[in-house]
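Input:
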Amino acid sequence: MLAFLQSLLQMVWKTVTDQPSPKSLFLSHVPEEWRPLVSAFLSVLPIVMVFPMLFALTTVVERKGLGRIQNRPGPNRVGPAGFLQFAADGIKAIIKEDVVPRAADRVVHFIAPLVLVVPVLLSYSVLPFGRNLVPIDLDTGLLFFFAVGAVTELAVFMAGWSSRNKYSLLGATRAIAQMISYEIPLILSALTVVMVVGTLSLPAIAEAQGPAPGGWLCRWHFFTPWGFAGFWLFLVAACAEANRSPFDLPEGESEIIAGYYLEYSGFKFALFFLGEYLGLFAASGLGITLFLGGWHAPFAFLEGWIPGWVWFLGKLVALILLFIWVRGTLPRVRMDQLMNFAWKFMLPLTLVNMLGAGLWHFLTNPIARWGLPAVLIGGAYVVLGRGLMPRSRVGPRVYRYAD
Amino acid sequence: MLGGGIVKGMVETARNFLGSYTDEARLTTVEYPEERIPAKENARQFPFLVFDGADPMAGLRCVACQICEKECPPQCIYIVKDTAKKPDYTGKLQFQPKVFNIDLSVCMSCQICVEVCPFDAIKMDTEYELARTDRFGALVFDKNRLAKPNAYFHKLHPTDGAEVDGRLAAEKAKAEAKAKADAEAKLKAAAEAKAKAAAAAAAAPPVAPPPASPPAA
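Output:
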C-alpha cells in the first residue's frame, strides 16, 4: 500500500517536474492486463481536468477583459472579484430546462454537442504539453489533429440541420462555408513547418525548435521570415476555424440570433460553448507547437530548469489573452469580406509562404536565406493587401437635381 | 500600411483596458445596490396623493373629480366618490374620494394624471424600488398608501412644489379677500338695506304711495 502511494506521488512529481516516463513505476503496481487502460486513463485525466478548467477561467477573464476594454467593471459579484462567475454559470446551465423544438430531429439534436466536444478533446491527445508530456506520440500527429478537427464542421451542421430552424440552418451553412474556406490556409500555413522539419510528428517538431548548440536563442520557427508569416496566418485561420470574433458570423446574434446553437439551451449549450473554446485552445496549442517552440523556452538559459509545461501553458494563456484582445477590438466582418479574405488574401499568401519556406530550406547563404523569403512574403503581403482594398472612389457627393 | 488600422485599434483598446484600472473617472458604472444616483428633480415613477396638514385623510387635496381616472391611458386609477364633503384649503366644502386605488402593475408612469389634475392633488414619486413579493394585493396602492405630505413633494420636486404652493397661497388669499369683500359687501348691503328700511319707515307715514314720487314736489 505504501509503495503504491509512493509510486503515485512519484508519478505526480515526475509529471510536474517534466521527467521522462512518469507513469512506469505506478503502472508496475497495476495488473498486467489492465496496464494499457490505466495508462490511457492517466493520460486523459489531466487533459479533461486542466482544459475545461482553463475554459472556465477563460470565460471569466474574457468577460472581465472585454468589460475593461469597454470601460466597465465586468462580472464582479460571485466570489472574489467575480472569479467564481463560471461556477454560477455552470450551475445555471445544468439546472436550466433543456428545451428541444417539437419539429427537431431529436437524436441528431442530442448528439451534435457530443460530436463537437469529443473530437476536440481527441485532438489534445497528440499535442506535446511538455518535454515528456505527450499523450500519444503519433508519427502522423499533425494529420491526426487536422483530421479530427474537421469533425467540428459535421457537428455544427448536425446542430444547424436538426434544429429545424431557419436561423440555425443559416448559421450552420455560414459556419460550413467559413470553416472549409479557412481550413485550407490553416493547413497550408502549418505545412511550411512540415516542409522544413521534415516530420508530421508534433513532439519531433517541438523538439526541433530547441536552442542551437552553443546559441543563446531558441530556434522557434516564429523567428524565421516564413515562420513569422506562417504563425500569423495560422492564428487568423485558427480564429476563423473556431468561429471567434471577428469571424463569428455563424453566431451573428444581431442578424441570425445565435446561429446553429439557437435551439440549444441548458447544458447542451454549455457543451457547445465548451467545445468551441476547447477547439480554440487546441488550435492555439498546435500553433504554439508549430511556430512558438512548443514547450521550449525562448532563451537557452531558461531551458531545462523550468518545466516545459509551464512554457506551453504560459504561451497558451498569452494566445488566449490575445484572442480576447482581438475580440474586444475588431468588429465582425461581412460574409463577402470573409470569403474574399480567405480566397484572395490568405490562400495566395500561404502559397507564397510555402515558397519562402522552400527557399529558406535550400539556401545556405545567410543573407539570401533571410532576405529572399522576407522580401517575397512582404511583397506578397503588400500586393495582395492592395488588391483586396476596395477600389471605390469616394468623393464629394454630386446632386443631379437639387443643385 | 496594410493592417495598420488593426494595430491602431488594438492600441486603443489596450489604452482603454489599462486606463480603466488607473483612471477612476473612466468607469462610469454605478454599482446599483451599494451606490445609487440621487433622483433627478423631474424624475417620475409612480403617482402619489398630496395632503396638507397633519392628518392624511383630512388634508387630502383630492376632490374626487375623477379627471385623472378618465384620462389615465392604461386605466390604472379607480375612484369612488364619497357622499360626505370636507372643506378644502380655502375652506370651501368639496367632495372627497372614498376609494382611490392605483394599480402599480398597470401604471406606465406617464404623468398624465399629474398634468390634468386641476387641484395639484396628485404628483409623481421618484421611488423606484417598488417590487413586492405579493403579486396581487400588494401591487394595488389604496389612498392610505398613496397619501404623502406636501413636505415630501417639496423634497422631491422643489421647483414645482414652490410654484404650486405659491399658486395655492395666492388662490387662498384671493378667496379670503373675496370672502372678506363679500362679507363686507354683505354687511354693507345689509346696512344699506337697514338704512333704507329705516328711511322708508321714517318716510312712510306722510305719504301712502312709497318713494315713486318725491314727497317734496
